[in-house]
Amino acid sequence: MFDRISGVYDRMNKVMTAGLDQSWRRRAADRARLEPGQQALDICCGTGDIAIELANRVGPTGTVTGSDFSRPMLELAADKARSDGLDQVSFEWADALELPYADDTFDALTIGFGARNLADLPKGLAEMYRVLKPGGRVVILEITQPSRQPLASFFGLWFDRIVPGIGKVAGDSSAYTYLPESVRSFPDAATLAKLLDEAGFNHVRWTLMAGSIIALHSGVKPAS
Fold first, then answer.
1. Tell me, what's the pLDDT at 7?
2. How far apart are CA 79 and CA 170, in angstroms?
3. Structural domains present in the chain
4. Measured in whole angstroms, how far is the alpha carbon of residue 20 from the centre of its chain?
5. pLDDT along the chain (224 residues), means of 10
6. Which sign does the torsion angle of CA 2, 7, 9, 10 carry?
7. Distance (Å) of CA 29 to CA 12, 22, 72, 181
8. Which pLDDT score, from 0 to 100, does residue 205 have?
């Protein structure tokens, strides 16, 4: 599905979020608290926007790896990085549930709008924990369901009716029917925070944005 929609992915994101998605990604990159020269991993990186934000933070002496399950997405991400002259960021295929990286490798790990696509979320969180260095930070940016009215009703209308309609115009209504279904099945912000705690992360906190439709979580792997 993500292979199919790779060509319209960025445009659809802008339409669905009224152009706010990039500001959310910048906040996620800020929450990683990276320093020049550090190493970061962005999993489920899609077309690479968060990875590129991270590359700007680690500078030319640092490294950023973006990984994804969709090769067409990775090709688009690599094109963006080349256009921006960012030699410190690379993109490669990887399964988020079996990351091909050694234990204690990265200073920060981010995942933007990808956690709800993991077939086994606790296993994915365990992999995130494993590849982070002690003291490393995980950042999760994700859509969440608002519980208060009238935003909850608007959210249902937008994601259940309007977004699939936009997807139909873009040529893939099934992909954008999947979007609201995946959001409904994903844990709410408090439950995700509990799962991060259970995975071993400390200092877990979250911020709700865009009227409680977007959640930004972070946690720290305890220092040894």
1. 72
2. 22
3. 2-146+187-220 (3.40.50.150)
4. 15
5. 70 73 95 98 96 97 97 96 95 98 98 95 98 98 77 62 61 62 85 98 94 92 90
6. positive
7. 21, 11, 23, 27
8. 97
**Rounded Cα–Cα distance for residues 90 and 55 (Å):** 10
Please, which residues bridge with residue 219 across strands? 138
Q: What pLDDT, on a 0 to 100 scale, did the predictor assign at position 154?
A: 60
Concatenating the DSSP letter of every residue in 60-112 gives TTSEEEEEES-HHHHHHHHHHHHHTT-TTEEEEE--TTS--S-TT-EEEEEEE
> E strands along the chain, which residues?
39-43, 63-68, 89-93, 106-112, 132-143, 202-209, 214-220
pLDDT of residue 210: 82
Strand partners, 137: 108, 220
- The contacts of residue 161 (CB under 8 Å, 6+ apart) are none
Are 147 and 215 contacting, i.e. CB atoms less than 8 angstroms apart? no
The pair of three-digit structure tokens given for residue 20, joined into one six-digit string:
């706010």
Hey, what are 55's tokens? 């590359």
pTM, two decimals, is 0.89
* Residue at token pair 């709800």: 116
Q: What is the C-alpha separation between 196 and 199, in angstroms, rounded? A: 5
